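Q: My labmate handed me this sequence with no annotations at all. I'd like to see what the chain might look like in three dimensions before we decide whether it's worth expressing. Could you predict it?
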Amino acid sequence: MIEQAREDFLAFRGFPPEHWRKSWSTNTLERFNKEIKRGSRVVGIFPNDAAITSLVGALMLDQQEECQLDGRVVFSELSMAKLVNISDKLQDQTVAAEATAA
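A: Here is what I predict for the chain of 102 residues:
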């Protein structure tokens, strides 16, 4: 099963090495899930799916605003620039492969 999932399992290696440590950690996700759980306990029962989506969306906006106000940055601008360069290279490779196949 691991061999079949090898490409998915190692997908993080397509990102700059500076991103790997943050990608491995689930701390941010676990914290966000706790916030959703806390918020849903307050509401109790949701009348419909839209109400759930509204709560989760509001919590996501709160998290983003909190990060912006605190000046927290998950990935530096320099490492994000590397990511854009990787994306451009992959796109160029895809275009070249399609041109060769045609």
